[in-house]
Design a protein that fits this description.
131 residues; six-stranded mixed sheet; alpha+beta; 43% strand
Amino acid sequence: MAEPSPAVAAAIEGELRLLDPAVRASAELLAALLHPEFREIGTSGRLWTREAIIASLTADDAPRPGPLTASRMRGAQLCADLVHLTFDTESKGIHSHRSSLWRLTPEGWRLYFHQGTPFDADAFGDPFAEA
């Protein structure tokens, strides 16, 4: 497999940082990675804004899911300032397919949109396998 482009590599680095519990608990670190117009459709179906997700993740009583393990991360640079990532996560036996759009800003690559969809790991084969 070829090395990712610098843009895809930067988006992957940012995505992995967002999975770090220390980053997820810091409003300052989250704000540095999330685009000002960030939106997320969470695994529950809820629509999140940048402000709401930062407040939720950094609240004193925020649930701490434990380590998130990412797998099958792939990226494609769609144009000079846009990267699309897909990957799966697992935490405490809960699996989710993930899709993220990263936009280049004057401050660097920022997460613009994210969606998570839960799935039963035993119900499917490899969804990314070549047909």
